[in-house]
Every structure is written in structure tokens, then in C-alpha cells.
Specification:
By secondary structure, the chain is of the alpha+beta class. The chain contains 2 helices and 3 strands; from the N terminus they run H-H-E-E-E. The termini are far apart.
Length: 122
């Protein structure tokens, strides 16, 4: 019923293009959600590290923060994370910078980022 033979099959091309675009968009969204969840896990881990450092500092005031953080660093079981810096701000607040390498879970989107999160414990 098509009057023009040259337009035959163009709907199939548009359907395939739209399907590929939606699939690629879904993969990008999956990758973005995974990166967000990695950053949240990194933040939670940094907060736990800061609280543990502050608790040990309060329980053992004779030790300095560097020796406490070194002992805690040795207990980190996750190889994806590393401690960027640990410092004592204003004499009371423990500041921890924790970093990690995020890799995209989707092989078609080869993305890698270094994400650092900061946690404070007073």
C-alpha cells in the first residue's frame, strides 16, 4: 500500500536506531548508579575510619593520631580503598580522606575514576 518504493523499510531502520540508543542510555544509567553507590560506600567507610580513629584517640590519649591511623590502615581488608590523609583539625576533629578507584561495571563503557571522600569525627 506504499506509494513510494524508496520509503520501504525506513521504519525498521528508525526502530533499530531507537533501540540501540535506548540500550546505550540504559548502560550509561547503570554505570552512573554504580558510581554513586561506590561513592556512598566509600563515604560510609571513611566515616567508620574517622570514628574509630577518634574513639581510639579518646581511649588512649598518650598515642598520637598517626600511630593510631597506621594501626587502623593495617586492618583495612578492602584493597580498593586507601587512606589519603588523616589529620587533627582544631585539636578536636579527626579528618579522614579516603580514596578508591571506581571502574565501570559495563564493558562497553570503559570508564575509571579516582573518587575521594572526606569524613569528620568530633
Amino acid at each position: 500500500m506504499n506509494r513510494y518504493q524508496s520509503e520501504s523499510g525506513t521504519a525498521l531502520i528508525w526502530f533499530i536506531a531507537l533501540t540501540v540508543f535506548v540500550a546505550f542510555l540504559a548502560l550509561v544509567i547503570v554505570s552512573a548508579i554504580d558510581q554513586f553507590l561506590f561513592a556512598r560506600a566509600l563515604t560510609d567507610f571513611a566515616e567508620q575510619f574517622a570514628i574509630a580513629s577518634k574513639t581510639q584517640l579518646l581511649n588512649e590519649p598518650s598515642q598520637n593520631l598517626q600511630s593510631i591511623s597506621s594501626a587502623l590502615r593495617a586492618q583495612i581488608a578492602n584493597e580498593d580503598y586507601w587512606v589519603g590523609a588523616v589529620s587533627l583539625e582544631a585539636g578536636k576533629t579527626v579528618k579522614v580522606v579516603l580514596c578508591g578507584n571506581w571502574n565501570s561495571p559495563v564493558e562497553l563503557i570503559s570508564a575509571t575514576r579516582q573518587i575521594c571522600e572526606v569524613a569528620l569525627a568530633r
